[in-house]
Design brief:
globular, Aspartate Aminotransferase, domain 1, Aspartate Aminotransferase, domain 2, seven-stranded mixed β-sheet, alpha/beta, 39% helix, binds pyridoxal-5'-phosphate, 379 residues, single chain
Length: 379
Amino acid sequence: MSVYLDNAATTALDADVLNAMLPFYHEVYGNPSSQHEMGRKAKSAIEEARKTIAGLINANQGEIVFTSCGTESNNTILKCAVRDLGVKHIISTPIEHHCVLHTLEYLSETHRIKITILPVDNEGRVDMEQLERQLSLINEKTLVSIIHANNEVGTMSDMDAIANVCDKYDVLYHADTVQSFAHYKFDVKKTPVHFLSASAHKFHGPKGVGFFYMKGAAKVHSFIHGGGQERGYRAGTENVAGIVGMAYAAKMAYEHLENDREHILGLKNYLREEVKKALPDVELNGVLDDNQSLFTVLSLSLPTHPSGSLLLFKLDMQGIYVSGSSACSSGASVGSHVLASMGKGADRIPLRCSFSKYNTKEDVDILVKALKNLYEKTV
Ligand SMILES: Cc1ncc(COP(=O)(O)O)c(C=O)c1O
């Protein structure tokens, strides 16, 4: 039996979500751009999904654009804000996902966009005073891009506070909500945010589909050139089944938000206590306050071990799936840029456990027992 504790990397597709998607593979498989009835039905399923997602965050339907993933959503927002909205300066943090950080590097190198990276404290919190100081000095069109819930350590930024300061200085605000959408509620009419990004596979939806929200006035044009799909905001034949599945998964998540949160947070706190008992020298990374920390993620720094980072491989051999820091696309083991920016030494072994509604206390017990055994074997 395996223990899957890597839900920040991706979650299992819900069986009900799959059932909602299946007809769009073999019954209503028309191209949504086709004029005939099968095409019109596919198109109307997309618009229904858009209505569902817009409703969940109190957006207007026209403000939701479907994409292929969180990476595409973030790339589109950042690159198109420069191309279409005249942004010349982007303020961000060192603990963004690589799809933001590498896009910022690209924009700096090829478009000479000024990039300001705000420091974070040793728990991953952004210094709001520094942000305000930076904003008070700007003299060019600026976008603030700050991750809402960090995927490696779970630290959350205060979206309302950031949105309000951005509003005060009349700058654009993008929050990468890939880890928090469908786990937390958002109301884009109350929080003056211009862009949000999300990805279905983080909340029991399918892989290969995401969306971004763009506030009415902040209109960017298509990042991908081609047909006029998504009202001209994103070319390419739509992933109809994926879009339907994403909306279904989001709706289900919202219906069970409170119960799921309670269950998952209980597991996170249980692991926190049990691992401390088993390995007193373990360190916890990120903010410990439940109100400022993603309830699905617990990041640990384990004491040194003769196996080093191969420790994770030893867990893997026992069917226990966790992550070093974040899921690494190349498979190569590189140090965590997030932990490094928080001043966490590379001498310890980072271990990220991320939970879903499907995890149980037994999963935590199995992990803790396996860790205890691995450390006991060394003495
Ligand atoms: C915070 C954050 N942003 C963006 C992404 C990229 O999302 P996707 O895997 O859908 O491209 C991830 C994925 O882990 C993430 O955690």
